[in-house]
Amino acid sequence: MVKKVLVVDDSPLVRRLIKKALSQHTDFSVVGEASNGQEAVELYEKLRPDVITLDVTMPVKDGLQAAKEILDKGSQTKILLLSAMGDDDLLKQASSIGIEHSLQKPFKANQLLEALNKIAGG
Amino acid sequence: MDREAAKQILQSFAKAVCSVFHDLTEQELAPQGVEKAESLILKASGAVVILGFNGAFSGRVLISMPKEMASFIHESLMDEKPNDEDLLLTIGEFGNMVSGNAITVVNNIFKGANVRLSPPSSFMGDDLTFFNFKMSAFNMVFKAQNGTLRMNVALREEKRE
């Protein structure tokens, strides 16, 4: 079954990069894009994706705040943190709200697919 | 800020810029040295990105490179020729990746420092002028096949709790 992916990053370039990587993979379909955490929460409600790729540093609402709101709703959606930051404190904070998977930028397309397959079983 | 912390931060940025550039382009950046900036005025040309960082250590980083180098990074990433908007996005994300990787190392060395980044601001032009206020700034120069990348890291200390 094709997994629905919501791509969340304030950089249009990174969103394009992720879409390009996933366009060559039939197990995943990008169903939406958000450029900040607030949009991510709204699109989550509308699209109910299987996986969210989530940046951390974003305007309006950051990635961790958005993830907490989504996961607090009892969501089964898996979240892959995709950030240039990857320090122990940040990962601990992410883990405490239920995010167990992360990939540090810059990443290769195959690393992204591997991570998504691991968390979503695509 | 004590000398050891400043040294670690500068080293982290120097390593990160080489590592990210290599990861994105598979080419090497050759460090040409670090020097303390003597002037408050900083001149830059080409594609420029500025990011701030805040926490136990705060400051900002400015990276500038020729448009040709930003174009090369974009083509390596996206496999397409960039327009001007693409170049601004590329230098912005490059700065974000370099700073994120550098600050990750800093946070792992100085536990509890909790340094976080601000979103990048990108510019393009010739003879751009920036000012440093109440910060100690350091210039670093790196050579690549298609030009010279310049990085200016400015540091300001805040009290650690």
Largest interface, with Cβ-Cβ < 8 Å?
A-B, 22 and 28 residues
- What is the fourth-level CATH superfamily of chain A? Response regulator
Head-to-tail CA distance between termini of chain B: 14 Å
What is the tally of helical segments of chain B? 3
CATH topology of chain A: Rossmann fold
Order of helices and strands of chain B: HEEEHHEEEE
The CATH C-level class name of chain A = Alpha Beta
- Strand tally of chain A, please? 5
**Portion of residues within helices of chain A:** 40-55%
Quaternary assembly: heterodimer
- Structural class assignment of chain B: alpha+beta
- Succession of helices and strands of chain A: EHEHEHEHEH
Q: What share of the residues of chain A does DSSP label as strand, in percent?
A: 15-25%
Taken together, the total number of domains of chain A comes to 1
Mean pLDDT of chain B: 92
The overall average pLDDT of chain A, rounded, is 94
Strand order of the largest sheet of chain A: 2-1-3-4-5
What is the CA–CA distance across the termini of chain A?
8 Å
How much strand content do the residues of chain B show? 35-45%
